[in-house]
Structures are given as C-alpha cells and as structure tokens.
Write a structure and sequence with these properties.
41% of the residues lie in helices and 16% in strands. It has 619 residues and is α/β, with parallel strands linked by helices. The protein contains 21 helices and 22 strands. The strands form four sheets. Strands 3, 12, 13, 14, 15, 16, 17, 18, 19 and 20 form a ten-stranded mixed β-sheet that branches. It has an eight-stranded parallel β-barrel with strand order 4-5-6-7-8-9-10-11, surrounded by six helices. A two-stranded antiparallel ribbon has the order 1-2. The longest helix has 22 residues, at 405-426. The structure holds pyridoxal-5'-phosphate (PLP). Residues 85, 88, 133, 203, 239, 242-243, 278-281, 326-330 line the site of pyridoxal-5'-phosphate.
C-alpha cells in the first residue's frame, strides 16, 4: 500500500501512477497534478472537485454490457433497463453529464422527492423510464400524473396502502377534470424478509421503513384489481441497502422477490413484467488488500440476477421478467475526485533542524544522539528500546529539575527521530510498532472540510481512497493524520495503524503538496454540510477532445462569503451597510485609509471561504 496507495485495488484501471504523479488512464493520460495546476493558475484556490464524465460513461456501458452478456449466456428473454437514483447525486453538472453519456441506453432517472421529480421530468427523454420511490402526498402523486400527461414513461412505486388509495383518488380527480384517462404505471415495493449487510443495511428486512408486507401486498393487489387498474401494475421493487459488500443477501432477496413476482403474476396480475432490484451494487473503497469491501464482481452480480429470475420463471411457469436496476453508487462514485492542498505539517518541530544541542549535553542526550546516528536494520529494535528507556529517565530528570527545557526538547526530537528510523527498518506490523507509529504521526492540515466533502467519513467512518498526487518518486514515511480547516475536532481523519496512510515530509513554504480523495461522486456532494460555513468546493468537469487532450468545462467556483451568508437568509444589503457604517464611524483610521479599507473588505467578501494564503505560500 505504501508504494501505490492501493490504486490497483480501488482504481479499476481509471488512474495510473506514471512519472511520479497520478494520471488519468484515458486518451492522452494527463496527470491530476497538471490539471490541478492549470485550474489554480486561473486563480481558483482551495479544494477542487474534478468531475470525469468519461468515467460515468464507462460505468453505464459496463453495467449494460454485463447484463447483455449474462442475458445471452443464460438465453434470457426479458430486457434489462436502468435508472439513476437522483438521491445519489442531483448536482446539474453531474446529471447533465449522466444524461449526455447515456443517450443510447434508454437510461432514466429515479426520484424520491418532489424536487427530484422535477429534475427527472426535465432531464429524462420521453419514453425512457422515470421511477418515483419514497413517501408521497397527493401533490407529489399529481406531479406524476402531470408527467404522464406529458407522455413520460413514469412509474409510481407504492410504499404503503394509503399511498395506493391516494393514487386512486388522484386518478379519479385528475381525469374527471381534464376528461382524459391518464394513469402512470404502478410498482409495488415489497418489504423483504431478507435484509442487507453493512453500514446501509436498514433499507430492507421486517423492520424496514419502506415497502409492503406480504399481507399488504395481497391487499394492494385486491384494491388495484377492484379499481380496474391491474393493467398499470407492471413492476415489483425492492432495495436491500446500499454498498452491499457481500453477494449472499442479494441472492436471498432475489429468490424472495422472484417468488412474490411469480405469485402475483399467477394470481392474475397480467401486466406485471418487471422486477426492479433497486441499488446496492458496491464500490471498492478499500486501499488495503486485507480489508476489501466487496466479495463479488459485476459479472457475478449480473449472472446471479439473471439466473435466479430464469430459474424462478421456469419453476413457476411464467415469462421471464424484465430486469430493472437503480444502481447509484456504482454509477456515480468514481467520476469525482477531490483535490485538496496541504497547508501545514504540525509535527515539523520534531525535525532534525529543530535540535538545540549544546556544547555540553547531559550524557543520556549524547547517548540518544549516538543511538540515532548509528541505528541500522540489525540494531533497530535494541536501539529503539534503549531510546525509550532513556526518554523515561530524561523526563524524570526534567521533573526533578536536573535538566532544562532545551534538554527536554532535544530528548523529544531525538526519540521521535529514532522511532521514525526504526519503524522504517522494522516495518513488521507488530503491536509495539503500531503503537509507536501513533506516537510519531504527522498532522497534515488540509484545505478542505470533512463535513462538506466526506460526510460519510464523519458520520459512518466510511473510508475513501486517499493519496498524494505529487512526489510519488519519493518514499512517504510519515504516518499521517489529516486535519481539515473546520473548528471542530471531528474534522479529522486520524492515523489508523491497521489501515495506515503514509505521506511525505514536505516543506509547504517551498513546495506544493496535494492530496486526492477518490470515489467521492456518490452521496457526498449532497449530504455535505456547511459546517463553519465551508461550502461545496470549486468544481470543474474534465472532458477530452478529439485530439485526446483534456479541456476544463463548467467551472463553478465555491460560493463567495456574501452568497453563503445570503443562502442562510442574512440580508446582503444589511450586512454590507453595517460593515460600511462601522468603518465610517471608526475613530481609529483616517478618511483616506477608510476608502482603502472598504475596498479591501469588499474584495475579501467576494472570495470563497476556503483558505487562500497561509505562511508564505499561496494555497
Ligand atoms: C430505492 C432505492 N433505489 C436505489 C438506491 C441506490 O442505491 P445504491 O447507491 O447503493 O446503488 C437507493 C439508495 O438508498 C434506494 O433507496
């Protein structure tokens, strides 16, 4: 992991290490570093969110091709169709790219709220599917009827019996007033007995918030039949939870859903012809071979879905249903990479250059110095233990007043250097070593907010692959803890000796150093919080032209300070006038200075709230 940051585990061949940087494995293979520098030269500082539409295209075509292959392999008669669940990423630059690259697939959108439904109606081509899940009131159901009147292929998934009654009511009211016979298609979300696994397992199982129990399914069927709406009932739906790392629960869920489908079909639900298996297709976020998050491939997933549906259809004597998916994470995660500059290293004091050795040092310090300079692979463990022992004695001598603060500082620095050196030589994963790594970890201050850009790390400890995008020709030896710039101690990614992240020793006054956080395209952008009023980072879409060169598109700079405040309902004019007035009445500055100060103030208010300059560098 130390050398390539697990890029071969999580990278899916999308990124490669070449010429000491991370390059995009597409067309002319530009490096993330050159793209980052290019954007920063245009004056955009702070964190950057890079979008790669070619990766969205890759995910969509891989999904469709895998199901096409599986269908052929098992001579499956049903079709394969898919929608993108908007909750995973609703931002316009993502959705526009998604719809643009998926044109040939009849790809649609899934909505879970009224606002998402508006995005779905305005972005889905007529005829491509729209599915509507989640709790709905009569207004939301009416919106579905309006979409159906426009000619959209829209399916309302019924999550509860009262929702079905509301649909029947809206159907009558809508068509009565407009003298039409408009009716969206109906799906039934089933509450599976099987549940998922992992952090997002609660979407299924007996106690799940969503779906109909078997008793309710039977009741819903009767109500639909009684109201002569069976011709619209075409889909059953389930979703067993996101990031399903294990294939076993899916197999169980498929059998359960398949049998419910077959039962309804044989009972008389003649229009039923699709099983929607929801989302859940997992992404490999791990950077470490020993802690991989998923145990199956997309090919296995597609085979299992197709094979199970085929078996059930044969056993129950029904036509093979169309297969429908709502994969979100799998489609969106890898398209976005967050690049964040390192602002400062906090344990630099433990650097050799900070030593204040005297003409005559206490003997134990001289010994520590000798241990450090003569430490090698064969004596590392012994010298390490000696140094820890010396440290204890020296700290006691300090407490008793026998040595001074400079001696104590030298002790800490020398022991730190000895630990660093011996950890490098030993590198044996023992508990002792893991503990020592914790002691010598370096704290990197990063120009980003964990709350805004990695909320699932903050809330659920979901890890994302992290690596530097420069200096990859040098060995990274510092066990690293990452601090974000929020004033919150939760805004950190602490060093974990079991999943260790090592970064480089850098002097950020002399050179730039950037970290990349990968697979951040699913859920993170919209779940991101404005804690401390740090908002969405500056975003840029990276597209490739016919010559294979990259181009920067759709640049949206992170919100400026005034707009952030306006967003949370401060009155911009009031704020400005208060600031102006306070400068005007100040007795501490003269008239000429007041003008200059006001200009300066307006300039800062037009900047985004991420840090721009710290120490001598320009970040
Ligand atoms: C009904 C439904 N479909 C699809 C998804 C997308 O799941 P994923 O992103 O794991 O593919 C979700 C996510 O929670 C969901 O609730």
């Amino acid at each position: 992991m130390r050398e390539n940051y697990g890029i071969d585990i999580w990278g899916e061949g999308n990124f490669v290490i070449q010429n000491n940087t991370v390059n995009i494995n597409h067309k002319n293979r530009p490096s993330l570093l050159e793209i980052t520098k290019h954007i920063r030269q245009k004056g955009y500082k702070g964190p950057l969110l890079l979008r790669f539409p070619h990766l969205i295209q890759k995910q969509i075509s891989t999904l469709y091709n895998e199901f096409k292959r599986a269908k052929k392999e098992f001579s499956y008669q049903g079709n394969f169709q898919a929608v993108f669940p908007l909750k995973v990423n609703q931002l316009p630059n993502f959705v526009n790219a998604l719809m643009d690259v998926s044109k040939k697939y009849d790809y649609g959108l899934e909505a879970g709220s009224k606002a998402e439904l508006v995005i779905a109606i305005t972005n889905t081509p007529l005829g491509s599917p729209i599915t509507v899940n989640g709790f709905k009131d009569k207004e939301m159901i009416s919106l579905c009827f309006i979409a159906a009147s426009m000619g959209h292929n829209i399916t309302i998934t019924i999550e509860g019996l009262s929702e079905l009654n509301a649909i029947i009511q809206v159907h009558q009211e809508f068509n009565h007033s407009s003298k039409t016979n408009i009716m969206p298609k109906i799906g039934l979300r089933i509450r599976l007995h099987s549940s998922g696994i992992g952090l997002w397992a609660k979407s299924a199982g007996y106690n799940s918030k969503f779906g109909l129990s078997s008793t309710e399914i039977l009741e819903a069927y009767e109500v639909i039949k009684k109201n002569n709406l069976l011709e619209y009932l075409w889909m059953i739906h389930f979703h067993i939870g996101s990031q399903m790392g294990d294939i076993a629960p899916l197999k169980k869920a498929l059998r359960e859903a398949g049998n419910i489908y077959a039962d309804l079909k044989n009972r008389g639900a003649f229009a039923l012809n699709a099983v929607n298996i929801g989302g859940g297709l997992a992404v490999e976020y791990s950077q470490y071979a020993e802690s991989k998050e998923l145990n199956y491939s997309l090919a296995e997933f597609a085979n299992d879905v197709v094979f199970t549906m085929k078996e059930i259809s044969r056993n129950k004597g029904i036509e093979e249903p169309n297969i429908f998916t709502e994969s979100g994470r799998y489609i969106a995660a890898n398209h976005a990479v967050l690049i964040a500059p390192v602002l400062e290293l906090f344990s630099q004091d433990y650097h050799e250059k900070s030593l204040r050795l005297k003409e005559k040092n206490p003997p134990l310090i001289t010994e520590l110095h000798d241990l450090w300079t003569s430490l090698n692979r064969s004596n590392a463990r012994e010298y390490l233990h000696d140094s820890l022992d010396h440290m204890e004695s020296l700290l006691t001598l300090f407490d008793l007043g026998y040595i001074d603060l400079e001696d104590r500082s030298n002790t800490e620095i020398l022991v730190n250097l000895i630990i660093k050196k011996s950890v490098l030589f030993l590198n044996d994963g023992t508990e002792e070593l893991k503990e020592l790594q914790n002691k010598i970890q370096e704290r990197y201050l990063i120009n980003f907010s964990v709350f805004q850009s990695l909320p699932d790390f903050w809330g659920l400890k979901q890890h994302f692959p992290i690596m530097p995008i420069n200096k990859l020709d040098e060995k990274a030896n510092n066990p690293a803890t990452l601090w974000d710039i929020t004033c919150d101690s939760d805004g950190e990614i602490p060093f974990d000796a079991n999943q260790a992240l090592y970064l480089h020793d850098v002097d950020v006054n002399k050179e730039e150093y950037f970290l990349a956080f990968f697979l951040t395209g699913a859920y993170q952008e919209i779940l991101g919080m404005k804690h401390n009023l740090f908002t969405h980072p500056t975003e840029v879409s990276i597209k490739f032209n016919e010559n294979g060169d990259y181009e920067l598109h759709n640049i949206i700079e992170s919100q400026n300070i005034m707009n952030i405040l306006e967003d949370i309902n401060y009155n911009k004019k009031d704020l400005q006038s208060s600031l102006r007035k306070q400068i005007k009445v100040s007795k501490l500055i003269n008239q000429k200075e007041k003008g200059k100060l006001l200009e300066k103030l307006y300039l800062s208010l037009s900047e985004n709230s991420y840090l721009k300059t710290i120490q001598a560098n320009n970040l």
